[in-house]
Design brief:
Length: 509
Amino acid sequence: SAVRVENCLHFGGPWLALELVRQLKLDQFLKHGMTASRARVARWRSALILVVARFCHPSSELHIAEQWYRKTALPDLLGVAPERVDDNRLYRTLDELLPQKAALEVHLKERLGELFDLEYDLLMYDVTSTYFEGQALHNSLAQRGYSRDNRSDCKQVCIGLVVSRCGMPLGYEVFAGNTADVTTVEHIVETMEKRYGKSDRIWVMDRGMVSEANIDFLLAGGRRYIVGTPKSMLKKFAAEVLKDDWNPIRNGLEVKLVRRPREESDADAAAAAEEDKELFILCRSRDRSRKEEAMVARSEEKIEERLGRMKSRCEKQQRDVMKVEREVGRLLGQNTRAARLFDVRVEQTEDGFAQLSWTKVSANRDWATLSAGCYLLRTNVLDWSDEDLWKAYIQLTEAEAAFCIQKSDLKIRPIWHQKEERVLAHIFVCFVAYVLWKTLGQLCVKAGLGNEPRRVLSELSELRMLDVVLPTREGIDLRRRCLSTPTEHQQILLDRLGLELPKIKQTEM
């Protein structure tokens, strides 16, 4: 009855993270790459604390040092006592970790290729943003711009990420928060080519990256691409949309390859030769069509209802023409999907007051119905089928998923650091933690567990390390450090992943 348990520590998550670190040889890289110091804790060990904490329990450096670290088994696993870990040491580690970025990205790319036989023939590129809490006055990268987080009230930075077809990250770059996506393409492509060499890769980007200047840049360097196109370009292919020669590739989805429509000014041989360098993939999705039609219908109903109220006010009140025009413009700007369906007129009466009227544009309505669910891709890969090209473009969702994981599971947002170098180091730690995440995902796939790193981490994080204290009649307590016994499900996961729990060294008092 006097047997008791003490020091119940979180073991499974940190231990799993360090197992991933060892498989990636990240500890060896940091040990040789980071400069030696006279500090009582080696910088590479502090760097691992930051990465493991971001992977298991994302929080601030202060929270890691004062609360989280001492509640885990990391002091035993890394050999760093809790009293030697403080926020200042972690901040200094951030400063020394950042210069390793380029070399570490190359190391991770090569190591991941060895572990999982990855192919880097298809590179997905996308951009997101993450915002600051605070003014970030002395950070030139912190600017206001288009916020994917719906936080236009905060300054932000933009992050451009390159991933493989399975979502494994190759590298990233950080841009000022007011940077337009389209202006980042040349920089990111040249950076990746400088780092990994220029080979026969295919770049996949969404329509936000597309401009004629970027297409010319890719073509001039002999690069291949599959990119989205602006919605406005679809209208040039209206005749192709009406034809019945679509290729069904799965239930509710059709695609077909088309050439750019020949214009009268393009009748010469040079223009024809230029057209032969590109193909367009016309895609039509039944589910997407239903979704777009529903969105347009809601937007149309909202505009019509609001215009009715505005007209009634104009009839009952003496309203200023310019003020009503501004209200109409604001209404149409907030409901862009259906704005083109209305022709709204604000006229001045004989008394000098506003009179509102509108009609619906039938031609725009017909085109909205015809083009619902359609989108257009553009490529200079001429030896692939329409299905293969579409499947390659759809892999771009891997980059979007990467941003989702970094923002939700790894808490890359919001950024509380104010100094530019610390901000960049924070993003770098999140990137390395995401590599651990994807490594666990690949191990799960390889073990036949599906791509479920979140569930595996959650399940194994329940493992605990604890001290069992056995009192004796002589007054001496026997203290045995133990691991909690894995449940049947946890043991199956460990066996399938090829992981074995360590033997804990016992201590007596």
